[in-house]
Amino acid sequence: MKKLSLLPVAAIVAVLFFQAIPKSESNDHPILNPEAPALPADVKAIVQQKCYGCHNAESKNEKGKAKLDWDALEAAKKSKALATMGKITEELEEGAMPPARFLESNPDKKLTAEETATLMAWSTGKKKKSE
Ligand code: HEC
């Protein structure tokens, strides 16, 4: 019984310990988690609304699925994730995604300037201009 009562203390110590580890270990990309690039909530919300439909493992859009799968990205190793994020940055800079033809019939899926800025800040690891 004595041992059990120490469990909560051990848990607190463990939490404090892990919080003390500097988050900057992902050196070249401050926002990206080095283990798995879990998407920040604001990024995820935009992606889910405007990108995920074509870019997920079950997508019927074969071309889109082959080029980018957000689930795989979240599970990917850092180097691979960074390469994919580079591609995402390119597409965003060109304003190429979602595809123009798709937007013709789904104008509500167009990224706003603010959404593009949020995604770019994440994919490049840089802060938004306004911050
Ligand atoms: C209507 C479906 C659709 C939506 C929505 C969509 N995409 Fe795509 N995406 C595609 C298709 C199709 C391709 C492949 C284009 C090609 O090969 O010409 C693609 C390719 C890409 C690529 C890979 C480019 C390359 O050359 O490797 C990236 C990155 C990408 N999309 C990002 C996004 C982002 C970010 C969003 C949301 C803002 C998004 N897409 C929304 C269909 C979609």
From TrEMBL:
<dbReference type="InterPro" id="IPR036909">
    <property type="entry name" value="Cyt_c-like_dom_sf"/>
</dbReference>
<protein>
    <submittedName>
        <fullName>Heme-binding protein</fullName>
    </submittedName>
</protein>
<keyword id="KW-0732">Signal</keyword>
<dbReference type="Pfam" id="PF14376">
    <property type="entry name" value="Haem_bd"/>
</dbReference>
<dbReference type="InterPro" id="IPR025992">
    <property type="entry name" value="Haem-bd"/>
</dbReference>
<dbReference type="GO" id="GO:0020037">
    <property type="term" value="F:heme binding"/>
</dbReference>
<feature type="signal peptide">
    <location>
        <begin position="1"/>
        <end position="20"/>
    </location>
</feature>
<dbReference type="GO" id="GO:0009055">
    <property type="term" value="F:electron transfer activity"/>
</dbReference>
<feature type="domain" description="Haem-binding">
    <location>
        <begin position="12"/>
        <end position="127"/>
    </location>
</feature>
